[in-house]
Amino acid sequence: MTKEGGTSSATASSGMSTFRVFQITMALLLFSTVAYIAKFTTVWTSPVFKPTADDVQFEHMVHLQEVLETRGKNRFFVPDFEAAEAFLRQVDLKEGPMFVLLMSSEVNGSYWCSDCARAKQPFDDALARAPPNTRVLEVSVGAPRDWNDDYNPFRTKSTFHIRKIPALLKYEGNLKTSHLVSEQFVTKPKLLDFVFGTKIPTPRPPKIIRSADEMLAFVKAYKGDYPLFLSFTSGANPHTGRLWCPFCDIADLPIQHYFETAAPENAQLVRVVVADSYGAWKDSNNPFRRQFVVRVAAIPTLVRVSKAQPTDEPSVREYLPLFEDTKALQTFFQAKS
């Protein structure tokens, strides 16, 4: 009896196990089918599209049409970075020069940035004197919290890549800019006239030197028979086309302008490029750091070189005030050695 009972129980157990396996198999099959259908349905009902560059540009153009303001003859305004780029993409430089003025947003009709507020009238006056085909796009960099954000596109993107406002740039096409005039410099009427091409002094383009050996040879050959100025600066950023050193970028145009307007007619300005990148400049083996004829501890550096006699060792005098002190800068170029 026991054996028979045991046999009967085993048979029943075996039958239930087979049925249970069948149930589990069907459940898994059903689950897999539902999961597959759900996945298939999700793909078709919730497509994910990655916008192309053309899509983004089209969206920006639509945005531009919504926010663009005309504020006088050849003067326009947009409130943000995307609209500014969209505007510049469709600019035809054959119609005349285009400048970009980067300012703070306004609060109750006034710029929250005090430097921007001070620059407004000198800029407006200079623009009124500029050639009639001069065009200006004013762009707001936003509220204080927007501008102070390290990731603000006006700071990070190559189109403008500025650190200070107000900032005036000349548009060169292909979202490239040049001729940076920043902060207090935007209040200087003669400098603005120079930028706009209203009054252009006799051009005296600087000689360009790119190696320490060439600079040392030039200074050694110099006889002291004319005023010689050396402007040590950085190379250009390949992405922006402007100087990679932001302080050099700000000082470069004022140095050129005040040299041309204040230095004696026989003076020579030499632009000495110390490095093509920040890393190359900070390298302790940079040749300009290892020579001691003209010490260069930082850039930008402006010096005047003189010799009492052609065979004398050069005497070097460095310009020490801030470059924003334009009276001191003019005096430095005018003064006798």
UniProtKB/TrEMBL annotation:
<keyword id="KW-0812">Transmembrane</keyword>
<dbReference type="Pfam" id="PF06110">
    <property type="entry name" value="TXD17-like_Trx"/>
</dbReference>
<feature type="domain" description="Thioredoxin">
    <location>
        <begin position="214"/>
        <end position="312"/>
    </location>
</feature>
<keyword id="KW-1133">Transmembrane helix</keyword>
<feature type="domain" description="Thioredoxin">
    <location>
        <begin position="80"/>
        <end position="196"/>
    </location>
</feature>
<dbReference type="GO" id="GO:0005829">
    <property type="term" value="C:cytosol"/>
</dbReference>
<comment type="similarity">
    <text>Belongs to the thioredoxin family.</text>
</comment>
<feature type="transmembrane region" description="Helical">
    <location>
        <begin position="21"/>
        <end position="38"/>
    </location>
</feature>
<dbReference type="InterPro" id="IPR036249">
    <property type="entry name" value="Thioredoxin-like_sf"/>
</dbReference>
<dbReference type="GO" id="GO:0047134">
    <property type="term" value="F:protein-disulfide reductase [NAD(P)H] activity"/>
</dbReference>
<dbReference type="InterPro" id="IPR045108">
    <property type="entry name" value="TXNDC17-like"/>
</dbReference>
<keyword id="KW-0472">Membrane</keyword>
<protein>
    <recommendedName>
        <fullName>Thioredoxin domain-containing protein</fullName>
    </recommendedName>
</protein>
<dbReference type="InterPro" id="IPR010357">
    <property type="entry name" value="TXNDC17_dom"/>
</dbReference>
